[in-house]
Amino acid sequence: MLVLSRKVGERILIGPDIAVTVVRVTGGGVRLGIEAPPELPVVREELAQAIQDEQGRKANVNRG
User: Fold this and answer.
1) Does 64 have pLDDT greater than 70?
2) How far is CA 5 from CA 2, 22, 27, 33, 63, in A?
């Protein structure tokens, strides 16, 4: 894992098509802006996990 320090307004580039910008830093969190191609899904980890869990439940219902 690469760990970087950035200030508000600074960016991190991931390849030629993805940019992550530090938008705001507060006491309890960081707000990030992410620019990526539309065909690349960008979701929060907890949302991706919830979607995966729901798909697993639906698959179990269909089997049984």
Assistant:
1) no
2) 10, 10, 16, 16, 48
Global pTM reads: 0.77
35: β partners = 19
DSSP-assigned states of every residue in 3-64: -----TT-EEEETTTEEEEEEEEETTEEEEEEE--TTS----HHHHHHHHHHHHHHHHHHH-
From first CA to last CA, the distance across the chain in angstroms is: 41
Which residue is associated with the tokens 């690349």? 40
Percent of the chain with pLDDT over 70: 98
Beta bridge partners of 29: 26
